[in-house]
Amino acid sequence: MLIRGVALLAACFIIGQLSGETLGRILHIDANVGGVGFAMLLLILAQNWLEQRGRFHQEMEEGVMFWSKMYIPVIVAMSAIQNVRVALSSGLVALLAGIIPVLVCLAVMPLLSKLSPKAA
Question: Membrane-crossing residues (predicted)?
Answer without folding.
Answer: 30-50, 70-88, 94-112
